[in-house]
Every structure is written in C-alpha cells, then in structure tokens.
C-alpha cells in the first residue's frame, strides 16, 4: 500500500502549512519546501495539485520542480492545466514527473491519442465522482456519464493509474466508501488510488483489506498536516509488508 502526500497550490501557496520546526506555530506554505519536507519524511511519491493552472488552463507552478535534483528517485505527480501537448512537453525532460490529467482526458478524446502518438506517457487520470457520476472542472460540470462506465471504457493502453475522489454535495467524502471501491476494483483495469477520502487511521487500516484486490494506495492531504496521523504511524499501519511511501 502506497501513501502519496498531496501538495495543493492555490494563488501561489499551499492550502496547508508545515511547521517551520518542531514546537513552532509559524507555518511554511512554499510548495517546493513542502515537496522537500515529504521527501525528507520518506515519501517516494508526491502529488502536486496546481489549482491555479486548472483555472487558467496551463500549468502555473512547474518551475517549482526546478529546485529538485534532476536525478531524484521520488515520483512527482503533477495535475492542473495540462490540456495540450505544449503543456505536456513541460514535463518531458523531468523524468521523475508523471502528468495527471482530469478534464482533458475525459472531455477531449484526441488529447490522449496525441500524447501516445508523441511517445509521451503513460499518464494518470484523476476522477471526481458524485452520486456515481463523473464531474469535471472542479466539480462544476456533470458530463452525464456514470463513473463505472467511464472507467470501463478507458483505452487498454495510455492510462495506467487512476486517482479517484468520491464527493458529497459539501465536498470530498471524509471516509472511503466500500461499495464504490469494490465496484471499481471489480473492473480490474488499472492501478487505483483513493484520493482525498481518507481522514483517520481507521480509514487507512480499512484500505489495507483491498490491497490484494488491486487498491494500490491513497493520496492524502489534510490528515497529514493537522496531525491526525504521521508518516511513522502510517508505516506502523502498513508494517505487514514493504511499503512504497
């Protein structure tokens, strides 16, 4: 089971802050320092969510990656504003990055074909779902397609990972929904991550029940910042097997 910390950027700073050092109340909201923080904590994968890029239509914070070692072994997922090949090529030379598309791959079928035609990929897909239906554009647009049908219709090649976020009317679900997870895993198509639907240690323990059935991990945000659980506690929960943080 893999844990992927989410670093979410809006108006140039991260949504949550990390303490400057132990015992201090001041918090850092610099995205690059967040990435370094989670690498120092042992994370092997980090999810960078560029909300500014999603609004404008092209990546806005890719330069944050320039501060990382070009030979870094950690994987940085980048999501936000990646809607054409010009945006994709920003990450082409950064071998440690993997692009994550949401609206583009769902609403523009030619986009994935263009990526594959240019030997870029595979890519990951972020899916937002409410009441079993797919939503795009930051949950403002319903495309009228059932989530299960969308996942079932994914091409055989090109997309090898899905980050799935289940919503209520008030935002992401606070806890995993077993029925949805089981329905998605029954399709047995690509590696599945639960995204932003984990808020307690009990949630993490519950997810371990599905790792043998294809659930690869969880992308987590708030609980890692508010002290609900630490990376050490996650290691303890996942201690029964080798964990790729």
Describe this structure in words.
The protein has helices spanning 31-40, 51-56, 85-89, 103-107, 109-117, 147-152, 178-187, 201-207, 222-225, 231-237, and strands spanning 2-10, 13-14, 18-19, 27-28, 45-50, 75-79, 97-101, 123-130, 133-136, 141-146, 159-168, 171-172, 191-195, 215-220. The chain is α/β, with parallel strands linked by helices and 245 residues long. The protein has a single domain, classed as Alpha-Beta Barrel (TIM Barrel). The N and C termini lie close together (8 Å).
Tell me, what is the CATH class?
A: Alpha Beta
Number of domains: 1
Helix percentage: 25-40%
Which spans of ≥5 residues are poorly predicted at pLDDT below 50? 241-245
Radius of gyration: 17 Å
Biggest beta-sheet profile: 8 strands, parallel, barrel
Q: Could you name the CATH topology?
A: TIM Barrel
Strand portion: 25-35%
Q: State the secondary-structure class.
A: alpha/beta
Second-tier CATH architecture: Alpha-Beta Barrel
Number of distinct beta strands: 14
Strand order of the largest sheet: 1-5-6-7-8-11-13-14
Instruction: Give the CATH H-level superfamily.
Output: Aldolase class I
Based on CA inertia axes, which overall geometry fits? globular
Helix tally?
Answer: 10
> Could you tell me the mean pLDDT?
89
Distance between the amino and carboxyl termini: 8 Å
Order of helices and strands: EEEEHEHEHEHHEEEHEEHEHEHH
